[in-house]
Amino acid sequence: MEILWLSAHPEPASLTAHLRREGIRAARALGHTVTESDLYAMGWDPVVTAADYPDHTGRLLVADASHQALATGRIAPEVHAEQEKLLRADALVVQFPLWWYGPPAILKGWFDRVLVKGLGYGTGERYGAGALAGKRALTVVTAGARGTSMAPRGIHGSLTQILWPLLHGTYFYTGMAALEPLLVPSADRIDAEHAGRAAERLASRLATLFTETPLAYRSETGGDYDDDLVLHPHVAPGDVGLEAHDAGARR
Amino acid sequence: MEILWLSAHPEPASLTAHLRREGIRAARALGHTVTESDLYAMGWDPVVTAADYPDHTGRLLVADASHQALATGRIAPEVHAEQEKLLRADALVVQFPLWWYGPPAILKGWFDRVLVKGLGYGTGERYGAGALAGKRALTVVTAGARGTSMAPRGIHGSLTQILWPLLHGTYFYTGMAALEPLLVPSADRIDAEHAGRAAERLASRLATLFTETPLAYRSETGGDYDDDLVLHPHVAPGDVGLEAHDAGARR
Questions:
Q1: A220-226: Cβ within 8 A, 24+ apart
Q2: B36 to chain A, minimum CA–CA distance in Å?
Q3: What ipTM does this complex have?
């Protein structure tokens, strides 16, 4: 299978870079083809501007301008190249250090620029269906926090809660299956032995990349939401947490 | 009082820009002093690199290098300038269009670059205390979604849930009081009348900027968390949602 490995860390000697190299080696050993987008190494510019859409004139409506650019193929070449890589992939691995409880800006802006209207949204289908349906996405996060504090009822929130905009709002929105994210905690205090163990945990997740059960987010058209896109009262009754949207969440 | 108005939209004729101008006018009419960081207009670079810390050598550990750079004052001048603006402010207004359920990359990278170790984290205090304690933060978001769908049990999650990394993980983490965010929904279909009404809603929130009750997130040291930073069983018992961390949430 084809994997697009997206990663973002400024330091080639970082734990993130180490896990990337080990992970890609493990994925290839499993027989997969891996394409890389190492955003810092590429000098990726994460800022959406009118220059992404060379035919655009007048007031910039990002959705409309990007839709038009996608349709005509007249879009910034580096954006087009990433779209092609994404469309070829069967799975996306997204790997980053958690900065302010989200991806570094360089990675956020990969989604901002690449997932234009007509590809990421505005296709008439979303949340469980869309242009990227059939693909899977695994998130691999290093964080300074201890594991206990980044769990349900931990002070930082669980990683699945923290990454809701990515897992539900991006992967699942565009049709991809969101896998349970992999957390490598205490990343600032990690020694060679812990790094080795983290690489093993990553390798074992890669071994089940195409077989494990994704998060069971409720599809938009599966009957759980009403016409206002609010959960019917009988679905996860009384639950106002994000967990209400996950049919597999413990409650 | 002093307000730092942080905003991110590539189009000067956008609804975001309109609300920024109207909001700043309203804040000044209330007697406040407003400083602007209009990130697109400034050409802000959101990417953390080693160049932010000119004295850094060898392997880049972002936390250590940024801590050192803050202590010596040898830090990229544009980062220093934003830190000074932030430290002078009594309140931060953060205004953006919701892209992939988060801030545009250019804005995410303002926090990544400006909130270095020693200012944003690593001060020995966090979650209700820290270097930015005493300041307030109001978030103003335009979104294409309808309001019903961006509410508790709405398919997108409530704005407070979606923005958890910003409200709790950034504002509250650094000591700031996080105010209930202001949502301007259906932003792609808005006409002049709706834009006027949105500006009025913004003006009315600005009128209470320094008096309204912030979100009641639980402080790290207030006795609600145990030594592993997990909520004690008797606090919001059985609640595994992010709402458990907000003493004022309905449940």
A1: A220/A126, A220/A127, A220/A128, A220/A129, A220/B155, A221/A128, A221/A129, A222/A128, A225/B155
A2: 19
A3: 0.97
